[in-house]
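Re: the 176-residue chain
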Amino acid sequence: MSVARSAVGILDRLLDTLHPPRPVYAHCDIPCGIYDPIDAQLSALTIVRMDQLIGELAAPAADAKPEDRALYTSKIARYTLVKEQHAEKLKGEVRVIWGDYFTPDHAKQFPQVHELTWKIMKGASKARQGTSLADAQDLLKLVQDFADIFWQTKGAKTRRVPSMQKPGGELVVPGA
């Protein structure tokens, strides 16, 4: 190894130490051709469930013990964090399918897909900003519509099946 190459290697390691590289995330960008909107639907159901739990949570009384106030605050924080995480995951899943999977031919066949994707992005933001169960359920419906279009582009008929999860709701899956 030359002295110059060795010096460059040392300099690279020093720069990485001072300014560590940030991790990057992607579906795969090969493209692998493996896409499925099920994770987006499960995230939407999770958002619905978090809003249900927040709605069921009784605020502590004015004379509540400090530990009761702390428990309430902890639950609200946890439910909100999970809702935030799943709203972002949902947006990421939809964004990857829309950006990497859908083709111009798909957009011609389903011209509503671009506006639907925009509505999902806005709906996920709205659902994470508040605790409206109606907003969360509207988001779930949008994601179900997206899943229906996705499976149709693959030539699959879809059906709705009960989610069998606490928030109820349905999942759009391929099949007769």
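The longest strand covers residues 158-162.
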